[in-house]
5'-methylthioadenosine phosphorylase (Picrophilus torridus), 1386 residues
Amino acid sequence: MAIITAKSVSENVIIVGNLERQRTVNSFLGNLEKVSEFAGYTSYQGEYNNKKVTTVFHGIGIPSISLITDDLISLGARRIIRFGSCNAIREEIEPGSVVIPQGYSYNFGGTFRQYLNDEYSYSLIPDYDLMLNTVNELESLGIKTFKGRVFTSDALFTHSREFIEKMAKDNHMALELEGAGLYLIAGLKNVKALSVHLAYGNLLNNKKMDASEISEKEKLIAKGILNVLTR
Amino acid sequence: MAIITAKSVSENVIIVGNLERQRTVNSFLGNLEKVSEFAGYTSYQGEYNNKKVTTVFHGIGIPSISLITDDLISLGARRIIRFGSCNAIREEIEPGSVVIPQGYSYNFGGTFRQYLNDEYSYSLIPDYDLMLNTVNELESLGIKTFKGRVFTSDALFTHSREFIEKMAKDNHMALELEGAGLYLIAGLKNVKALSVHLAYGNLLNNKKMDASEISEKEKLIAKGILNVLTR
Amino acid sequence: MAIITAKSVSENVIIVGNLERQRTVNSFLGNLEKVSEFAGYTSYQGEYNNKKVTTVFHGIGIPSISLITDDLISLGARRIIRFGSCNAIREEIEPGSVVIPQGYSYNFGGTFRQYLNDEYSYSLIPDYDLMLNTVNELESLGIKTFKGRVFTSDALFTHSREFIEKMAKDNHMALELEGAGLYLIAGLKNVKALSVHLAYGNLLNNKKMDASEISEKEKLIAKGILNVLTR
Amino acid sequence: MAIITAKSVSENVIIVGNLERQRTVNSFLGNLEKVSEFAGYTSYQGEYNNKKVTTVFHGIGIPSISLITDDLISLGARRIIRFGSCNAIREEIEPGSVVIPQGYSYNFGGTFRQYLNDEYSYSLIPDYDLMLNTVNELESLGIKTFKGRVFTSDALFTHSREFIEKMAKDNHMALELEGAGLYLIAGLKNVKALSVHLAYGNLLNNKKMDASEISEKEKLIAKGILNVLTR
Amino acid sequence: MAIITAKSVSENVIIVGNLERQRTVNSFLGNLEKVSEFAGYTSYQGEYNNKKVTTVFHGIGIPSISLITDDLISLGARRIIRFGSCNAIREEIEPGSVVIPQGYSYNFGGTFRQYLNDEYSYSLIPDYDLMLNTVNELESLGIKTFKGRVFTSDALFTHSREFIEKMAKDNHMALELEGAGLYLIAGLKNVKALSVHLAYGNLLNNKKMDASEISEKEKLIAKGILNVLTR
Amino acid sequence: MAIITAKSVSENVIIVGNLERQRTVNSFLGNLEKVSEFAGYTSYQGEYNNKKVTTVFHGIGIPSISLITDDLISLGARRIIRFGSCNAIREEIEPGSVVIPQGYSYNFGGTFRQYLNDEYSYSLIPDYDLMLNTVNELESLGIKTFKGRVFTSDALFTHSREFIEKMAKDNHMALELEGAGLYLIAGLKNVKALSVHLAYGNLLNNKKMDASEISEKEKLIAKGILNVLTR
């Protein structure tokens, strides 16, 4: 394939945009091995609950995650959970909560136009059961979850106060940079997918998690996601 | 308000695009009274499980249902379930099944542009709990449900075979004419909403429900929706 | 067809968005009978000047009126006059005047995109002779007419003062919700069509007609339209 | 102003895209004088029926005619008739007929975006009385007129057979290159305008006028237009 | 062809939007003859350095220059230099300097849509060698050149202070009305092209060249361009 | 900053989308040290010709490279050369040649919309002198260069034969995935930038470089780029 050089990947895949977070997920896997490394995009495979799980770095932005997702599906992925972070833009979402996107809003253009070969607003939604199971699992681990609408931005440095307030007013829970790409490709290819975003901070009140809280929370969430994928 | 002339409506509302279906829902309500009639748009109020429920006709198309939904929210509606029909475009969806839109795809333009005052793809999603409760309730009544992506079309008579196949290939479950408007207004106003579509037919294999099957099924679904809203 | 269940309709059709106004038009027809009733959309047929005339409810919004118009043309309609209302946004248009749209401005998107299967600005104009005859007839009945540009809006509740002033500055005479759909379908199908809007009010100075004035004026206009169609 | 260097122009203006045609119009004017010449755009002023008339070259394309029209209005023009040619795309329009655009369709973009400072489909229509008077005058001179929808193209050399048939199917009477610009600027500035297109040929059947027929017909039309403007 | 009635043109062509400037260029040519005159668009042919050179008027706006360029290429043009003017919007560009567009920004729409038959942002760039040779030649004649990004506007009269500042902030060197059309057609047809703009003024500080400076400078530039084309 | 955690970077920066290529560039630097590592994006700093040079990984896609470029400029970068690969779509470009984009074509949308806060086609061009110096340096090292138009795609897996042929017909030299982002941000921030693409293959004839050829060529190009930046 294009970026992942392994011959195949497992049906269960966790993708991350941060190598540190990939290490956290990997730390729970048995028989871990690096199965692909190309152009900065590294993949590992291991086992959890006697099932195989692949972890893959997805980079920044919709084109990057879309390419990785498409590659993964060609290689055999059938359940893909993205474990990412986000910044909340809703007063009641405390840093440390988890945001589960029932749908992503996005800017028209590029990746969508090329994949849809048409111009309409494509509904970006997760797999229903994967969503329910993950919400229930995380809640059972004591993690507060928020379900709703998230905006995938294409340009972090353009997030003016005005932009943030417009997105909050239109009832988005959070901003992030890749999720729409995952739901697009999984939607078009009919593969189960879900995003799980740990809210590192809240842009309305500037509250933030510190590094040790993040580390702690990410371990807990990683376990939850692995449980859902391999049960 | 603009179309609904009542001073207020109940928090629980069922909207329909078909007066026959409105009569079916009304038939389960106690103390039923007509509370508004204007320009062909008639509203009733009644009781179920000792809770008030309003039923309203929403007409055809996104601008019509959007106007009605906006009107209803101004008048006090807080949980709105649309009970509609649809045509399935997925082989495995038998007529008589229920399609629950986790998200609507739509054409850019008109109503979206005027409400968003901007041009981006706004994620159209239902309330999470209303969706779960309704799916569970309908399944418990023996109704098969399909959860996923639905396309709201603006022009029924342009549905060529080519169009239907494109929409099926992009993994839409069904086509209908109004749902995107409900999720748009409810999303922007932060009010709980859900659509429940009875699949009257399937456009891929031309299977159809007959009138008596429809009547039977609609009574069952109406009861299910009323249970969810008033529990 | 889709909404109108009659086997055919007369060549002359008057469509309205308000059941009260339909009753007014019907009151001038001989041998009146209800010929279709479905989903809230009711059609009548009667006679005037020994010619058959059908009256049909068209609902709210471009998708609704487009569907009805397309249905009507398939069923035999060849001259369609919409009798509607509007709100003027030009200082000199007094409530009680009639606005005759020489052309409609509109938002891009939905219905236009699906019917045109392309994206360009389609000129929405009435039949030349129908327009002249109607203007002359109404003027001869003592009704003041204004001919020019009207904007078909897709979202009544977004009409802020700023929006109204922008539309006035761009030299629109009035705002309303459906006309662009009629001219679109009639234009594409090469059928004669015209809209006649009674200005109920003026949004710049908040002048309004009262109910009895409306009733009186609508009777006069109905007669004028019937004369033009059946002469 | 930008292109027309005269201090002012008369209220009545005839604009043309062809210097030969300008000479034809000028030949009917008394006291003719050149009042502006800049960058290839030449203006003349003369008299007809004891009223002043200015004739101006408008060049090719929407930006060119828009600039000239805007310039003219700033300089005092209040009634502008464009006397142009076109190619018919409707079987029944014989070369030598006159096409009167009740409205122009056009491509989105450039000039429209900059003038409207917004993106919607702006209705491009002529002055009602100027249209009626001109139609009547030309018909009285024995010239056959067609009233309806014309498409202003931005690129003559892209008119493939497929393009022409699409435009014909959407019920356009003719193709030409500037008219939308005149109706746009006159519409926004609230000045009376009209286009009169002599059909030089018909693109469906490749019939064409020859040079002497054109010369003859243009003299007749020029007289008709001058009569309307100065009566 | 459409506008240029000559049977063929020389490989080397200079196009101008101003008849005065055309006279300046022509004044350097030997054996000058008018080879085409139609609809206000006049072409001359002559010799320089024993090579043939054609000069052509291109009118105002992208559709006009595009049509002329397309016509010229069909008639044999292979190296086209546009000699035009512009208004600078960068503080450091003094009137009298030359702006060489490495690329043009433009409004979407019309001409681009019809030629590309698609909607994407087409890169508008000059021929590399023609650009280098011209920059070097002009610098060697003592003319200061600025290389960079220029915006082709479709509507001169909409250039508000706000618009100018936005274009300056986005790092455009100058505004003008046609260049994007030349680079578009030359790009699609794979013919060498370049624009050379003499900055008549600067819109930020309102400095301007006077008529005699313009005349002087244009003679110098004309000579430079002729040297590059015929060397 | 967002991704690069160093306090500052050098004025001269080379960015790459492939860690192997970064190692090649780094191998020429003295006093090399890793200065930032975050989320998979690693930066090094070293010396060449006694000048400081930073090398940074930019990931896949326009949003990724745009974010990195914006970050770099905030940290002090003033001359940025991207050293990347591409696939040629022009018969005469042999694998192993270097493609120098005088301009990038791109899809509308996302990153462009957020940065421009407007919708027009922004000209994406390199710094003139950086381009000339690099072309001359590479040619002097015996590398064949092609200067012209490149398309930045947002979705590698949608490159059907039809798409490739359309892009070739519109006179693009090559396809790649990031360049438009670099020229956008550098253009808006007024910083000197250039892309240098080694053509790994040619999509029209399926010729390809082998791994050892790539390695050899990349060393040569790396040296050339370093010479240009530090001279």
Summary: Residues 211-230 of chain F form the longest helix (20 residues). Residues 25 and 222 of chain F are 6 Å apart (CA to CA).
